[in-house]
Amino acid sequence: MDPEVSVLLQCPPGGLPEEQVRAELSPDHDRRPLPGGDEAIAAIWESRLQAQPWLFDAPKFRLHSATLAPTGSQGPRLLLRLGLTSYRDFLGTNWASSAAWLRQQGATDWGDKQAYLADPLGVGATLATADNFLVFLRRSRQVAEAPGLVDVPGGHPEPQAVCPGDSPLHKNLPGELVVHELFSSVLQEICDEVNVPLPTLSQPLLLGIACNETSAGRASAEFYVQCSLTSEQVKKFYTSGGAEAHESTGIIFVEIQRVQRLQETKLWAELCPSAKGAIFLYNQVQGSPA
């Protein structure tokens, strides 16, 4: 396993469809206020805004914990316990110079090293083409996270997609709609970043949850999605531009049969942590086709 990434949860072989996942939203799952108060978060945000005035805050889902039911259990297999957080709080905790100390303090104060961290939940996709390639994107050097590195398509599920407004409340975010947003958002990210039409994509299968240790254990739900287009067709759509074409500068295709040993290649060193987590879970849960 790569030190930049860890696996919080691995789904059963093949992955889980949307109907096998449920979510529980509660203020109990939000981060704890910082030991010295949250003024430090506000100060970091103001400093970032001065340097990058185009930044904007937005609510995000916070992953508190996830529990997989035993094999043979009735009903949904996976329970996600979610709170609410924001991009501002992410920059002021997970990305702060004090992040390592916050993890130590969280373990001491609450028995949970993530207790003081925003931990916004991301999504990522191992996208397979009809001719058995996985799709990767070279991130632009202008993006805030992992500039110039190679990633899988991905982003964030948005609370505002479920409950419009600047400050959605937990009680106004029904679990089933949140799960639907989680699964829908990964498809939307693929469409926006790779520019392929939505009807060419299969329903996502959740492979598991990986944590980016370079941003203090921030979690990302990793999915497997099939595309009915060949790699050449996908490339044509990508080069014609999409809603988020500015976020990447190139598309890379890797043969599925090579993915099992990707860690032994030069490309592995160019992958950002979220992509490493996605590939690890893909190899463990989905694997190569027969």
How many helices?
8
* Overall shape: globular
Number of strands: 11
Mind describing the biggest β-sheet?
Answer: 5 strands, mixed
Strand content: 25-35%
Describe this structure in words.
The two termini are 25 Å apart. The strands form 3 sheets. Strands 1-9-10-5-8 form a 5-stranded mixed β-sheet, with helices on both faces. Strands 2-4-3 form a 3-stranded mixed β-sheet. It has 290 residues and is of the alpha+beta class.
Task: Briefly summarize what is shown.
This protein has 290 residues and is α+β, with helices and mostly antiparallel strands.
Task: Fill in the keyword field for this structure.
290 residues, alpha+beta, 3-stranded mixed beta sheet, 11 strands, 25% strand, globular
Give a topology summary.
Elements: E1 5-10, E2 21-25, H1 39-51, E3 59-68, E4 78-86, H2 87-92, H3 99-110, E5 122-128, E6 133-139, E7 150-151, E8 154-155, H4 159-162, H5 175-194, E9 205-212, E10 218-226, H6 231-239, E11 248-255, H7 256-259, H8 273-286
Parallel strand pairs: 2-4, 5-10
Antiparallel strand pairs: 1-9, 3-4, 5-8, 6-7, 6-11, 9-10
